[in-house]
Design goal:
- The complex is a heterodimer of chains A (212) and B (351).
- Chain A is α/β, with parallel strands linked by helices.
- Chain A is built from 10 helices and 5 strands.
- Chain A has 2 domains: 3-84, Methyltransferase, Methionine Synthase (B12-binding Domains), Chain A, domain 1 (Orthogonal Bundle), CATH 1.10.1240; 88-211, Cobalamin-binding domain (Rossmann fold).
- A 5-stranded parallel β-sheet of chain A has the order 2-1-3-4-5, with helices on both faces.
- In chain A, helix 1 (3-12) packs antiparallel against helix 2.
- Helix content of chain B is 49%, strand content 11%.
- Chain B is built from 15 helices and 9 strands.
- The two termini of chain B are 28 Å apart.
- Chain B has one domain (3-334): TIM Barrel.
- In chain B, helix 2 crosses helix 4 (44-58) and helix 9 (165-189) runs parallel beside helix 10 (205-226).
- In chain B, the strands form 2 sheets. Chain B has a 7-stranded parallel β-sheet with strand order 1-4-5-6-7-8-9. In chain B, strands 2-3 form a two-stranded antiparallel ribbon.
- In chain B, strand 6 (230-234), helix 11 and strand 7 form a beta-alpha-beta unit.
- Classes of the chains: A alpha/beta (212), B alpha/beta (351).
- The A-B interface holds A 14, 55, 57-61, 63-64, 67, 99, 101, 103-104, 107, 124-125, 151-152, 181 and B 86, 89-90, 92-93, 154-155, 158-159, 161-163, 203-205, 208, 240-241, 282, 286, 317-318.
- The structure holds cobalamin.
């Protein structure tokens, strides 16, 4: 097995300490920080996403795999400099909207985005529109990812978008939404830029949104 | 038949004049009588009043004390957030067992020591006085996985399954003792049916469900049955990979949420299991029309065959149109059941 294959397997198996060790070893061997994403982390997390869709993986497996990926990204992120850092896919403000405390799905989406090379600003749960606006300004984010699991809180996505608009930020960020009750139609009706039904879709979506 | 008789007959495989109608209502019930949810969840008199009225107005066959997942955890000392018109919720960031070491010093609360659990017991006594005989009275406890998640934080618990299964078992032991005591106190106060809500169990997958969760669910179900109560299992979410195990618990009623097809539930749990559900609370019930709701219930009934109770996959959403809920009641009332083979007493294991 190559170094990268070994690392992919360790991520899929959720072995954070092994991933950390392999990352450090590979860096010592002269591998460039940016290389890890396309060669190890992204393919591993794609496989995790596939297994989740096919019901081979459930929440515990997904969470430990994401944690293992983070063991690598935590080391790599500070090493990405200049060009590489800005090429790093973009900065995403992630949150569960106001009134809603469900965060398992949001956490998985955030971790998948992170392992795809995005910088994540995680506002946690129950995030008010003002908090979202503030975070976008402060971190110069180019993406906002909002999650809602309750039909009663979905409307707060709309409030988030309105707040970004009145702060004059709507044209500076792409907005994507998701969560079990959210649909493509709903996303369109509130003026979001995209909807993702699961975490792997969220990654593809985020990539295509920042590319446009 | 009275609602209570209808439910008991159905559970015993006896003929009934109609299908039992047992939808879960919480916020819907509070809105129905115009009270804020905070009052509903924290003042038993308000809850009892609202439940009796919603049951009467929509022809439910039962009343319930279910309100939110934070009842037991609050009495254990967990930090709980209260909102004026929403269910109380656990403050996961400050979970009681954020530090696993605290488990060894944690004491199970006395259910009648004046806290939220006591409020639930008082609701049951009042139900008994006001509804006894007419409607079935349902108590409610959190299942092992759900309550463990409430105490530890659900995100942390999910990774504990891999990191520290010994801790998970220890926590489940604690929860089992707590919920058995609470369930028994509810039975003594007047509950003849105990609902067990174990939502988090739908997230762990078949391996951990069978190895770690199921053994504790079984002990809980057995203990409640030994105290004379009927049992109802309610696991929200996608339970497709654990249905067989849910059937093997031997609960009198198994609820199916909308993500778990009734046909699959029937196949995996056998012909004798009473199934309840499973129209999609939001897409079918709240957003549908009376006609589409009626048809959706008919489809569930067709897939469930006999031994079926009318209800939605989960809680009736608060803004559900009255006519849609009435359409469910109408379906139930129009469909009586014939005598079925009695449910063998040793039904566990062999459907
Ligand atoms: C676990 C859970 C809880 C836990 C949450 C703990 C936590 N830290 O998250 C607790 C116990 C606290 C809870 C509380 C409540 N819950 Co709850 N809960 C669930 C449950 C069982 C699982 C949700 C979950 O985590 N799924 C797993 C994750 C991975 O899936 P997901 O979130 O959908 O995320 C995926 C995709 O949607 C997508 N995605 C998610 N976010 C985003 C964002 C973007 C940008 C993109 C692109 C994609 C994306 O990717 C994810 C990964 O693939 C569901 C039932 C179910 N199975 O759906 C009910 C459910 C969501 N809860 C429900 C309810 C009603 C409640 C309560 C009101 C109950 C009550 N009466 O007290 C409270 C509300 C508390 C609050 N204010 O938020 C209802 C919601 C009904 C509705 N549509 O309005 C559900 C559907 C149960 C039901 N069948 O009725 N709940």
């Amino acid at each position: 097995m190559s170094q990268f294959e070994e690392m992919q397997q360790a991520i899929i198996d959720g072995k954070a300490p092994v991933v950390k060790e392999l990352t450090e070893q590979a860096l010592r061997d002269g591998v460039k920080p940016a290389e890890f994403f396309p060669k190890a982390i992204v393919p591993a997390m794609n496989e995790v996403g596939r297994r989740m869709r096919d019901c081979e993986f459930f929440i515990p497996e997904v969470l430990i795999a994401a944690r293992a990926a983070r063991a690598a990204t935590d080391i790599l992120r500070p090493l990405l400099v200049g060009d590489e850092a800005s090429r790093s896919a973009g900065t995403v403000v992630c949150c569960t909207v106001k009134g809603d405390l469900h965060d398992i799905g949001k956490n998985i989406v955030a971790m998948m985005l992170e392992s795809a090379g995005f910088r994540i600003v995680d506002l946690g749960v129950d995030a008010s529109p003002e908090k979202i606006v503030q975070a976008v300004q402060e971190h110069k984010a180019n993406l906002v990812a909002m999650s809602a699991l309750l039909t009663t809180t979905m409307v707060n996505m709309k409030a988030g978008i309105a707040a970004l608009a009145s702060a004059g930020l709507r044209d500076h960020v792409k907005i994507m939404v998701g969560g079990a009750p959210v649909t493509e139609n709903w996303a369109r009706s509130i003026g979001a830029d995209g909807y993702g039904k699961d975490a792997p879709t969220a990654v593809d979506l985020a990539r295509s949104l920042v590319a446009n | 038949m009275k609602g209570r008789e209808r439910i008991l007959a159905t559970l015993d495989g006896q003929p009934a004049d109609a299908l039992p109608f047992m939808p879960i209502t919480m916020m819907f019930a509070a809105d129905h009588v115009g009270v804020k949810y905070l009052e509903y969840a924290t003042d038993y008199r308000v809850q009892v009043d609202a439940q009796l009225r919603v049951a009467e107005d929509y022809d439910f066959d039962y009343v319930s004390v279910i309100s939110d997942p934070a009842c037991e955890a609050a009495d254990c000392g967990a930090s709980v957030k209260f909102f004026p018109d929403q269910p109380p919720a656990l403050d996961e960031e400050n979970a009681l067992l954020a530090d696993k070491g605290k488990l060894s010093t944690l004491k199970a609360p006395d259910p009648s020591s004046g806290g939220r659990m006591h409020n639930r017991l008082k609701a049951l006594s009042l139900f008994k006085r006001r509804a006894g005989g007419d409607k079935s009275i349902e108590g409610w406890v959190e299942g092992p996985c759900a309550e463990a998640a409430d105490l530890r934080g659900i995100n942390a618990l999910m990774t504990d399954f891999y990191d520290d299964p010994g801790f998970v078992s220890g926590l489940f032991e604690f929860v089992l003792e707590l919920e058995l005591a609470f369930g028994k106190a509810q039975i003594a106060a007047g509950a003849e049916l105990i609902g067990i809500g174990d939502a988090a169990a739908s997230l762990v997958g078949p391996k951990f469900y069978e190895e770690l969760v199921w053994p504790y669910e079984t002990r809980l179900v057995d203990g409640l049955r030994a105290s004379g109560a009927r049992t109802r299992l309610h696991i929200c979410g996608n339970t497709r990979s654990i249905l067989a195990g849910m059937g093997r618990l031997g609960c009198d009623i198994v609820d199916l949420d909308s993500l778990a097809p009734v046909s699959q539930g029937r196949r995996e749990m056998g012909p004798r299991q009473v199934l309840l559900g499973n129209i999609d609370p939001v897409r079918a019930l709240r957003n549908g029309t009376p006609e589409s709701v009626y048809d959706a219930v008919a489809e569930c009934h067709r897939e469930a065959c006999n031994r079926f109770i009318v209800g939605a996959g989960c809680e009736v959403p608060r803004d559900t149109p009255a006519a849609n809920l009435r359409a469910m009641a109408r379906y139930a009332r129009e469909h009586g059941t014939a005598e079925l083979q009695p449910k063998a007493d040793s039904s566990r294991g062999l459907p």
